Amino acid sequence: MAVGSDFSLRKVDVALTPRERYIDFLRSRGKRITPQKQVILDHVSSRHEHFDVEQLLADLRNTPEGARASSATVYRTVAEMHEAGLLHKMELDGRCVYEHDYGYPQHDHLYCSGCRQLIEFSSEELARICDAVAAQHQFRARGHRLIITGLCVDCRTSKSKSRHQDRV
Amino acid sequence: MAVGSDFSLRKVDVALTPRERYIDFLRSRGKRITPQKQVILDHVSSRHEHFDVEQLLADLRNTPEGARASSATVYRTVAEMHEAGLLHKMELDGRCVYEHDYGYPQHDHLYCSGCRQLIEFSSEELARICDAVAAQHQFRARGHRLIITGLCVDCRTSKSKSRHQDRV
DNA sequence: TTGTCTGCAAACACTTTGCACTTTT
DNA sequence: AAAAGTGCAAAGTGTTTGCAGACAA
């Protein structure tokens, strides 16, 4: 069973770049830094964007240098980066979606069930509510995830034209 | 692709019992009311509790009358009840978890990563935030889901004794 | 009689794992 | 040299689906 170590529970130290942070993490665990991990790291940290493993694999294949990593490796590496606190993970429509959120402020999402787009927002009030609720239940909160489901503007207006909306 | 019809989008009419509601739904679609569906309905609506299909199947088998339904049927029926607005669905740790929430007030959850218990809470403030955020993005919200992850009191205190905590 | 439903088993999508080989340290 | 990583293919999970027979409307 994977373990969310003390390391990953601590508030991130934003003085480090993602790469430094990751390398620190690997070193502290006696894990290795391999070309595959670097390629994946570069891809993932070059933008703040939601993706699943399939997309990441496709991206890697489209890379000019044709950087390569097997899906097994991508799954393993992505999990490792999640442990390291570089990637945020969530489940959506039966598969795992990640986003590079190291150094990014906490935020939540609107999820359009039409085009499956994730729209970000953040709310301090929400954080306050979470703290209050947790305290009330003597719960030690590690984090939270709020997803508001519905239809985005585009899907609302193109409702009758496309097959997009209401995919549940 | 399954369809979340107008029917299921409408606010539930709490004057109906779950059974009435379900039967209405089935009739309106020309779907049938079978013994299997009734057994499942009874089980599900007899308590307000979180379960996955595996648990539901086990429960059915433990029933005195040995009520039976294949897993395919349970999957199909549960999905149907979700469409009918009787069951709330969420994904957790890679599988789908349902709860009978017809007639119950909207609420959200604290999820203990130790014992995997779901603790309910509700917050009007939260609902307000969701509305505000959706409006801000011209988004038509259908619903929301907030999960606060962490450790419950029990798992916090029995931290060193058990293998419970930090299952990610 | 028509059309849905059920159960079974096969199919599926996504993810994890065992293993032999490679690579880092 | 020792330990961890990689790719492949096989094994797992949880869920869906095709189909033939059963059955409600």
Characterization of the model:
2 copies of one chain form a homodimer. With 168 residues, the first copy, chain A, is α+β, with helices and mostly antiparallel strands. Chain A is globular and about 45 Å long. In chain A, strands 1-3-2 form a 3-stranded antiparallel sheet. In chain A, helix 3 crosses helix 5 and helix 4 packs across helix 5. Chain A has 7 helices and 6 strands; from the N terminus they run H-H-H-E-H-H-E-E-E-E-H-E-H. The two termini of chain A are 32 Å apart. The longest helix of chain A has 13 residues. The interface between A and B is large, with 42 and 42 residues. Chain A binds a DNA duplex (25 and 25 nucleotides) through helix 3 and helix 5.
As a percent range, the share of helical residues of chain A equals: 25-40%
How can the largest sheet of chain A be summarized? 3 strands, antiparallel
Q: Tell me the quaternary state.
A: homodimer
CATH architecture of the largest domain in chain A: Orthogonal Bundle
Number of helices of chain A: 7
Uncertain segments of chain A are 1-12, 160-168
Question: Structural class of the helix and strand makeup of chain A?
Answer: alpha+beta
The strand line-up of the biggest sheet of chain A is: 1-3-2
Report the β-strand fraction of chain A as a percent range. 15-25%
Q: Please, what is the CATH homologous superfamily of the largest domain in chain A?
A: Winged helix-like DNA-binding domain superfamily/Winged helix DNA-binding domain
CATH class of the largest domain in chain A: Mainly Alpha
